[in-house]
Write a structure and sequence with these properties.
two-stranded antiparallel ribbon, Rossmann fold, 28% helix, seven-stranded mixed beta sheet, alpha/beta, binds S-adenosylmethionine
Length: 216
């Protein structure tokens, strides 16, 4: 399979026509070998326009959603980023291309280990990962310039707002189990401004400050 060609088509047919235009984000999508984050029996769907199962009932998000969330973060090469929901590690790789340091948390041990192996194999040096409840954030390395949550929560986990820097930005799907709104939250002078981007559907954020149990 010609993965380089599929990658190019993904950018030209799924991202640019839907309005993704940040050149650094597009370059990351051209570069990162997404198929290396997908279970081997599903690799023919690696660049398709839909989420793909990665085990434990979880999914790697559709390329467009990963790109949209990345653009919403407005990353700079100086940023320290916290990601909740490592999953396959693909979004982590995108963040690592665009920011200075990435801290990523996954609740499933198997997914965390798999993502770590894929990211190490691709040579990323600016990522730190752990298996834990990400709704608690990662106090040891706080505060963060940017925080991204790639699972859906009915409310904003309080520790994440506390671990966000002043002028920082938090991007997450907010809402109930089968329908959420992709939301950008900016912290300014200790207050939070909310902006709704679009409707979306994510797997649930399970943890102390998210949903208390797996409802699917
Ligand atoms: N961004 C990922 C990727 O590129 O593959 C996809 C993430 S998937 C849609 C959401 C992930 O969030 C799942 O792997 C799930 O196990 C994880 N998750 C859910 N609740 C969590 C929590 N409290 N802490 C950490 N990870 C959590």
């Amino acid at each position: 399979m010609d993965y380089a060609l599929l990658r190019k088509k993904m950018v030209l047919e799924q991202l640019i026509p839907r309005g993704i235009k940040d050149p650094r984000t597009l370059n990351a999508f051209y570069k990162i070998e997404r198929h290396k984050f997908i279970p081997s029996d599903l690799r023919n769907s690696a660049y398709a326009d839909f989420p793909v199962p990665i085990g434990e009932g979880q999914t790697i998000s559709q390329p467009y959603i990963v790109a949209l969330m990345t653009e919403c973060l407005e990353l700079t090469e100086k940023d320290k980023v916290l990601e909740i929901g490592t999953g396959s590690g693909y979004q982590t790789a995108v963040l690592a291309e665009l920011a200075k340091e990435v801290y990523s948390i996954e609740r499933f041990e198997g997914l965390g280990r798999g993502a770590e192996a894929a990211l190490n194999a691709l040579g990323y040096q600016n990522i730190k990962m752990k298996v834990a409840d990400g709704t608690l954030g990662w106090e040891e390395f706080a505060p963060f310039d940017k925080i991204i949550v790639t699972a859906a929560s009915p409310k904003v986990p309080l520790p994440l707002t506390e671990q966000l820097k002043e002028s920082g930005r938090l991007v997450l799907p907010l809402g109930e189990t089968f329908s959420q709104v992709l939301t950008v939250i900016e912290k300014k002078e200790g207050r939070f401004a909310f902006r709704e981007v679009c409707g979306c559907v994510f797997v649930p954020l399970i943890g102390k400050h998210g949903l208390s149990r797996d409802t699917l």
